[in-house]
# Entry
Amino acid sequence: MRTSLAEVQTLLTGLAFGESPRWHGDLLWFADWGAQEVVAVDLDGNREVMVRVRFPSFPICIDWRPDVRLLVVAARDGLLLRREPDGALVTHADLSGLAEKGHPWNEIVVDGRGNAYINNVGFEFPGGDFAPGTIALLTCDGSARQVADGIAFPNGMAVTPDNSTLTVAESYGKRLTAFDIAADGGLSNRRVWAGLDSGVPDGICVDEEGAVWYGVSFR
# Structure
């Protein structure tokens, strides 16, 4: 069966280090690590800086709560930040107690119930010796706990539309791994969603039909 590839067009240039693209409110949002900004751009390429994160931290990944407030993972200081309606950036949660100092937090995904899943790479990156990472759960009431470990560099997470399954890209494991989501947000029934013979998965999403898409950083 043959499929045709959509034409690729350049929407925006001049990024320092773009990461975590999200479609929200008819705009493409993303984190620009190098510029320490969260940017939104329309389909004509018009951009607007929505959030600036102070040095030495930087915005590494974003998602939204059900109340449409933006959450921003500040990679180096263990904080999850929240953008208020007036544009102010405040601390939403302190995750530093759930990982060793110097082990950066990476990706976030928020399910339809408002539970946020944030993963930690598990070692000093870049430059440190590899160790498996973890996934933490931040519930709507503000409590946080670890819900998975042994993740070989977690690098992208997505939740199915029915809130039943969390899928995580394991870059160093060359696989997509799935978990069942319990009513309290806990994870169970870990399994390989897709084993990848070649290529390193870096970032994933789930479409409206439940299909998982992933980016390949290199082969």
Notes: The radius of gyration is 17 Å. Residues 26 and 209 are 20 Å apart (CA to CA).
